């Protein structure tokens, strides 16, 4: 349980900073810190057991059929990473409180940070690779938010987008790779998977899976050639860089390499792919870092280089190298987080991060300078500091590894990379803090407040302590996490400063001396470098993205050109081709069922229907007439439903019909009243052919269907309606009970649609090009003089109570005979709309004091609560129950819980219909530019002298 | 006796419906067409009621009720549109 809690705490905590923002910045930071600290303490409690070699598990089923389980595992590797994520996270949270300025929105910053922290913890503690994928994507998304935190900076947005694109693409590749791996093993559980090394490596799918997984890991961990996103992510605030690029985000790829090391490593493919990538990355990035003038740019490339180092170690495949990799993960996290915070301090205090504008800060910022020197020296690999120990182990390993059959090649490249690393590390010290003091710093540099230097100071203490007493301070953690990586017995090793005169020592000495002399001749080296070519990764990336976008545009515009006729033609055409194809390949003949006699009135209605259809097509250029004819079709269909024993459908159809007519008329007011002739002869011919063949196809199908006896699901519902749903109206029982969940979803969608109509029109009507066009609109038909005739107003008023009564009646009887909340809702809405039509919006809106938004919301809520209510009685969501009451005078009364659900439906339908229609009617009023009336009618006979002042013929 | 009356009713209403659609086709004005469709609604209500009597059930009564109400409202809407262009002012 506490494992899940460790992961969940940051997610829960993410709610608070944004909420507490009003309470002040300290409250914000404290809340964030508290949640992280709680997770950290929980982790510490688990640590002793894990360090003694135990592996903790916690598991819940989620989607068992997909192999997805919420299962967590804490072993040495997980402990190491979770410790880094939470430990450095705490320091970063503390640091950020003092780093962020008053203009920055601290609430959203900490919320993003906690989301990211939770996602990272999820990756390192998951025991199910599908779960890892979920968290992996979450880190991509939350890091996008963090990198782009300074939304006003274009560089921030571009950097965030690039990071998301690259790591997101890698994530897709990883999904495919891990799925393949799961397919090979037959289980998505990591613990199971790690037992099957032989099975995986002998599978023909091993290589594709490996390539895909490495694609994910290398993009995340910024390995060459995917390293280019990381320097651009430096546009983020420094605490973000310190967190993402020292201990978390970029280490996720490394973590996965380490996690899958027992089953994937040890093959030549693994060695050449992983070790070579690591080696190249290490050298190239170290070389580029030497020439970066931006402090954070320098640190970014150095991060890439060190990630390359760890990748190289993991790629070597030997247990000893894995130990070194784990050790370097710890060391790199400590000194790199300290250095990023340090760069942030320099930036914060001097106003610039450009090395060319810095120098001589030693006397101005002694504390900062000291911290920088220790951390950078550790990065360079100077003895007595922790960076030296793991770098030494790395050199020792490469010295014994042959690469491309050359025993010395890898050692030489690694030494070169170490040499560059020494040079850029010392450049950070020398060019920033030493040299002559300047007078043109953008700001007045001085040491920052305690809150900003304390976190890096803590890290620097660790750097020194681990450097001096590695076995005491890191030995247990290294041992347990290396054991988890290797998955077997640990090799013989000794964490110590002095190992005697070894090849690695000589390589270190060469790197130190070479690096310092490289820095001494920095000007010459720099001018030589500047003469060479510098491929701009950002420009290349943008060209590539632009090409992709163009390709997507060509494809989507080709298919999706906005012509509804074309879409319809393709859809109907496809159905016709498929349908006729199936028809031709089967022996379809008419069924043997006896035909029923046709009633003469039915034949008349049938004629009406056909004529209505033909007239709609014939008159479709005159839109009002077409609308009237569609109304005829709707009516005949309703009568058809009555005749064919579907009274519920008839009621629904007729209600929807009239609402649609009003909606169309509202829209038609500001639209052209005629449709221009656009189709040529050929297109008309195509359409006639398509329509006829589709119509004949459907008719044949119906004929074949109706002339046969068949059984459907209906019988079940007919039998179960009363005992199962407590109602005799099967249609209503299906809607509110059997398929209540569908209905619940539908009313939610209905409410969303109405709110969306409101939002869209509200935005369009207040400013924007639509509002301007409406203002220029001129009425295109003659207007009668009376806006609100007396006769109409009185008729509408008389109708209202009757219609409301009908609505209540239809609602109450719904469960047993045709009716229900949906129809009742439409009846009531139509009665209300009638008042709008008769007396105008101004008057009616004054009298009808219903909040349609609230009706939608409370309707969905009521329906949902009814559904949840059945949980209280131990039934599944939306199980209905019937209450039988024996009341005096009234007799026996049945109250089905479905009634409350139906009341929710009713409320949503009324709210949505009224909201959509009243909002649509705004368009007309905007265009009209006439004042809305205050009185109920044009001329009130009971007050013959009073006339609505706004009235004008 | 009731059977004869029903059959006569069905026959007369069918004829009326066909004449309604004829007027809806012929026009000549939009108002004529709206009136034709409105009359069609009245006739359809009658057909539904007769069908209820024919089937000896009250089940279809509400359909006729809603037809009456909604037929009226849509006719009002059409007329309002012809008169003023804007249905809800």
Shape of chain A: elongated
What is the CATH topology of chain B? Answer: Helix Hairpins
Show unreliable segments of chain B.
none
List the total number of helices of chain B. 3
The count of β-strands of chain A is 4
**Strands of the largest sheet of chain A, in order across it?**
1-2
Q: What is the count of helical runs of chain A? A: 38
Structural class of chain A: mainly alpha
Report the count of strand segments of chain B: 0
Report strand % of chain A: under 5%
Protein architecture, described:
- The complex is a heterodimer of chains A (953) and B (89).
- Chain A is 71% helix and 3% strand.
- In chain A, a hairpin with a 4-residue loop joins strand 1 (56-63) and strand 2.
- The longest helix of chain A has 32 residues, at 154-185.
- With 89 residues, chain B is mainly α.
- Chain B has one domain: Helix Hairpins (Orthogonal Bundle), CATH 1.10.287.
- Chain B contains three helices and no strands.
- Chain B has helices spanning 2-26, 30-55, 61-84.
- The longest helix of chain B has 26 residues, at 30-55.
- Classes of the chains: A mainly alpha (953), B mainly alpha (89).
- Chains A and B meet through helix 27, helix 28, helix 29, helix 35 and helix 36 of A and helix 1, helix 2 and helix 3 of B.
What is the secondary structure topology, with strand pairs?
The complex is a heterodimer of chains A (953) and B (89).
Chain A: H1 2-13, H2 15-20, H3 25-51, E1 56-63, E2 68-74, H4 76-99, H5 106-125, H6 129-147, H7 154-185, H8 190-193, H9 197-202, H10 206-220, H11 229-232, H12 238-247, H13 249-259, H14 261-264, H15 268-289, H16 295-316, H17 319-350, H18 366-380, H19 386-399, H20 409-433, H21 450-468, H22 470-486, H23 503-520, H24 522-531, H25 537-559, H26 564-584, H27 600-618, H28 623-643, H29 647-669, H30 681-706, H31 714-725, H32 730-738, H33 740-765, H34 769-775, H35 790-813, H36 821-847, H37 852-872, E3 882-887, E4 891-896, H38 898-928
Antiparallel strand pairs in A: 1-2, 3-4
Helix pairs in contact in A: 1-3, 1-5, 3-4, 3-5, 4-5, 4-12, 4-17, 4-21, 4-22, 5-6, 6-7, 7-10, 10-13, 12-17, 13-16, 15-16, 15-20, 16-17, 16-20, 17-18, 17-19, 17-21, 17-22, 18-20, 18-21, 19-20, 19-21, 19-23, 20-23, 21-22, 26-30, 27-28, 28-29, 29-36, 29-38, 31-32, 32-33, 33-37, 33-38, 35-36, ...
Chain B: H1 2-26, H2 30-55, H3 61-84
